[in-house]
User: What shape does this take?
Amino acid sequence: MIPAAFDYLAPTSVADALAALAEAGDDAKVLAGGQSLLPVLRMRLNAPELVIDLGRIDELRGITEDGDHIVIGAMTTYADALASDLVRDHAAILREAIKEVADPQIRHRGTVGGALVHADPAGDVGAPALALDAEFVVTGSGGERTVSAGDFFKDLFETAVGEGELLTAIRIPKHTGWGAHYEKFVRVSHQWSIVAVAATVRVEGGSIAEARIGLTNMGSTPLRASAVETALVGAAARDDSVGAACAAAAEGTNPPSDLNGSADYRRALAPILTRRAVLAAAGG
Ligand SMILES: Cc1cc2nc3c(=O)[nH]c(=O)nc-3n(C[C@H](O)[C@H](O)[C@H](O)COP(=O)(O)OP(=O)(O)OC[C@H]3O[C@@H](n4cnc5c(N)ncnc54)[C@H](O)[C@@H]3O)c2cc1C
Assistant: This one.
């Protein structure tokens, strides 16, 4: 289908984008890589009067180092994040998850920021962002504020980015030297996650010293498997001890039921996928 007619603006600075957003109010929609927004417009599920394309704002692209954090501009594409040494060295679990997003065409257009604001519970970058304790830089006409990962994801397709605001960057504390694995369960390749687990661990002398686990599609937002993280501390990086620690992976979750599987099926998958993810992350 063809989208309803809209006006189009392509500002070259965040300030100009924010001014346009403030003037248009909820008649405007922001365009990043378009991989989620364009299908929505084409199906006429949304018909904004103005589309503000962020694609020409250079200050929103790129990955830099800032002390003990790396900073990813919201308009950085998945492909650029995959090619980044900083992401590979300090946020390996994000890289592992991005490898599993859709196909190369979508990874060349889709952006890390766009995916996080879209907040699809089956999307692959939310769980690693949560597991890494990412901080989200949200900018509005009143200035910048930083939102923790725990407060960023509000509900299905809903985040802390308010009307008239933009997500401008994602700050990730360095997890240098941590092992990482994203275990994505799908029926056919390039499908959205039925369930997936983002696991990143620090191993010391054959045991897990620290673990961060994020769950994809086990609720209306990405979730942290905190009970598993606690149980993993001190566990030997072996199948039996990791398996026992991961048994509680579905605790506190509220997974959906849909054509791909019931909530109970997802609850049964979560401990198995978590065990696999942790063992792979620990190199076991
Ligand atoms: C066929 C297909 C398969 C896919 N498979 C997967 C998959 O397996 N896993 C997966 O995770 N994803 C998948 N996706 C989705 C893909 O990852 C999208 O790129 C992503 O969801 C949105 O990123 P985008 O840059 O394209 O954002 P857009 O589509 O441009 O925008 C998405 C939403 O975020 C808002 N927005 C974007 N950037 C900002 C910002 N900086 N500040 C405020 N609001 C903003 C927009 O207004 C819009 O509401 C798939 C998409 C397609 C088309």
About this structure: The chain has a mean pLDDT of 96. The chain has twelve helices and 14 strands. The first strand starts at residue 7 and ends at 9.
